[in-house]
């Protein structure tokens, strides 16, 4: 099958206003007033009706990642391929079709238990995107929302699922020691692309599933000044900075990481590598960043 892009993420929260404030005052996302209500917050970053759907619940966590497929014909092919591979999935109920603003979709889990939603026909909004922080648009055209990084306790089993079943391609395998000690354990990640030029749309990190359900997701802006302004806004609003500014060694992104109200991180970046897959050779990286990206977990 051909997954085109990451189309949205679905998130649960106990405090919808906390997410509303964070999206408006820090990230610069636009609230879709016509879709949002007392229990649902729909956030925009481009022409699409939404890219983040936050709903009230009993916990603060990631729920699902939406993956876009081109159309109905490709969607039916994908379902047949999953059936042939003995992968269980469920058709969207009418309520979920409406909630996700798509024509149709299915939900399934990867081998690590991460929830995926494959759909087509995502609706556009009725009005132009306007950031409350005057961000001149997010980089999504032809690339999708951004990327997600999932935890995968059995890394190779999960990696095979994305490559062999969902049709992703390998971008990079990264492994590096977790510290300076000679016997320090290795950090291992697989980065994978789908049918667009973004260096990776999904990455898998060898670790237990965190309480938040997600390692991080990423949004990309148009210039490095927007990254700096985003960092300023995060600090001014007392958002925990999970990683200092830095440039990654594999996708070349200049970014920082901050904690979201649901516990996982949001990478806020610029200058991600858009790859010509016809001439690309899979990478194997030994360092996560050329400079910066000093990680700092929140105090417990």
Looking at this protein, list some descriptive labels.
300 residues; alpha+beta; ten-stranded mixed sheet; eight-stranded mixed sheet; globular
Shape: globular
The fraction of residues assigned to DSSP E strands is 25-35%
- Percent helix, as a range, is 10-25%
What string, H for helix and E for strand, traces the elements in order?
Answer: EHEEEEHEHEEEHEEEEHEEEEE
Quote the average pLDDT. Answer: 96
Profile the largest sheet.
10 strands, mixed
Count of alpha/pi helices: 5
Cα gyration radius (Å): 18 Å
Spans where pLDDT lies below 50 across 5 or more residues: none
Taking the alpha carbons of the first and last residues, their distance comes to 42 Å
Number of DSSP-assigned strands: 18
| Secondary-structure class | alpha+beta
Question: Your description of this structure?
Answer:
The protein has 300 residues and is α+β, with helices and mostly antiparallel strands. It has helices spanning 16-27, 72-84, 94-100, 155-165, 224-236, and strands at residues 3-13, 30-31, 40-44, 52-56, 61-69, 90-91, 104-109, 115-120, 147-151, 169-177, 186-193, 202-205, 216-220, 241-248, 254-259, 265-270, 283-285, 289-292. The strands form 2 sheets. The protein has a 10-stranded mixed β-sheet. A hairpin with an 8-residue loop joins strand 2 (30-31) and strand 3 (40-44).
């Amino acid at each position: 099958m051909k997954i085109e892009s990451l189309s949205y993420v679905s998130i649960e929260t106990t405090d919808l206003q906390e997410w509303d404030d964070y999206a408006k005052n820090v990230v610069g996302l636009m609230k879709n007033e016509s879709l949002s209500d007392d229990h649902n917050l729909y956030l925009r970053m481009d022409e699409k009706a939404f890219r983040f759907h936050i709903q009230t619940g009993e916990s603060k966590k990631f729920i699902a990642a939406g993956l876009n497929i081109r159309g109905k014909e490709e969607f039916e092919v994908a379902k047949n391929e999953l059936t042939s591979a003995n992968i269980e999935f469920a058709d969207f109920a009418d309520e979920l079709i409406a909630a996700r603003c798509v024509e149709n979709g299915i939900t399934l889990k990867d081998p690590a238990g991460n929830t995926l939603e494959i759909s087509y026909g995502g609706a556009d909004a009725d009005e132009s995107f306007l950031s409350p922080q005057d961000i001149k648009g997010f980089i999504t055209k032809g690339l999708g929302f951004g990327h997600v990084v999932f935890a995968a306790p059995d890394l190779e089993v999960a990696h095979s699922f994305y490559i062999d079943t969902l049709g992703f391609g390998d971008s990079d395998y990264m492994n590096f020691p977790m510290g300076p000690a000679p016997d320090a354990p290795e950090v291992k990640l697989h980065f994978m692309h789908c049918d667009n030029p973004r260096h990776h749309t999904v990455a898998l990190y060898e670790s237990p599933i965190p309480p938040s359900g997600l390692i991080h997701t990423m949004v990309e802006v148009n210039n490095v000044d927007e990254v700096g302004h985003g960092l300023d806004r995060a600090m001014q609003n007392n958002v925990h900075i999970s990683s200092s500014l830095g440039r990654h060694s594999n996708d070349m992104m200049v970014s920082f990481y901050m904690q979201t109200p649901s516990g996982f991180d949001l990478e806020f970046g610029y200058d991600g590598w858009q790859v010509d897959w016809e001439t690309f050779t899979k990478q194997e990286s030994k360092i996560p960043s050329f400079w910066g990206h000093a990680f700092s977990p929140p105090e417990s």
